[in-house]
């Protein structure tokens, strides 16, 4: 199937945040790190904050039909601004301590972080997730040939998706009372 994927702008942010919040509704990591109280709203707000940072300092791609989105950030991107950090802390509420205690391995330096990728449930199984991965890998490879792209996932189905796109598992991390996290990466060719 042919998918129409393009670079997002700030105008795409609300729809992309909604798409990602629907895509992550039952995701183990977000279920563990976001309180149940008003979970859907918190999740959409967090996605919006992270996407706005990625649009400014990295790259966000969206499906032209609003069914999927992906965001990457270079390791040179600044941390979230203080106001955004405050909002993130508030949205994580009483789960913030667990989130901060997760001891995930550092990404290789320098690298790009595939920070989020989501596809609406009704659009899954048609190759859109793979198309989003391929599109973001191609664009990052054009911007930064020879770089490494790193990510984490808490869903075994995602591991298979990323392995099918050339990524490999570099670590498995257990959390105290939450999901296991798979760290993955892929080094791109030095020439695009």
Automatic annotation (TrEMBL):
InterPro entries: Acyl_CoA_acyltransferase, GNAT_dom, Trichothecene_AcTrans. This is Acetyltransferase (GNAT) family protein. CDD domains: NAT_SF. SUPFAM superfamilies: Acyl-CoA N-acyltransferases (Nat). Residues 3-189 form the N-acetyltransferase domain. It comes from the Bacteria. It holds the Pfam family Acetyltransf_1.
């Amino acid at each position: 199937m042919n998918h129409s994927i393009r670079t997002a702008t700030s105008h795409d942010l609300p729809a992309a945040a909604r798409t990602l919040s629907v895509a992550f509704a039952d995701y183990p990591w977000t279920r563990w790190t976001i309180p149940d109280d008003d979970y859907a709203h918190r999740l959409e707000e967090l996605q919006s904050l992270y996407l706005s940072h990625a649009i400014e300092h990295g790259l966000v791609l969206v499906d032209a039909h609003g069914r999927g989105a992906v965001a990457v950030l270079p390791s040179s991107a600044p941390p979230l601004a203080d106001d955004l950090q405050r909002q993130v802390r508030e949205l994580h509420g009483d789960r913030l301590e667990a989130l901060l205690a997760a001891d995930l391995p550092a990404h290789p330096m320098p690298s790009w972080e595939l920070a989020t990728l989501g596809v609406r449930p009704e659009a899954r199984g048609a190759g859109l997730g793979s198309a989003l991965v391929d599109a973001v890998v191609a664009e990052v490879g054009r911007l930064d040939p020879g770089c490494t792209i790193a990510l984490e996932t808490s869903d075994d189905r995602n591991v298979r998706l990323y392995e099918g796109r050339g990524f490999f598992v570099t670590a498995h991390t257990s959390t105290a009372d939450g999901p296991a996290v798979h760290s993955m990466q892929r080094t791109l060719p030095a020439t695009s």
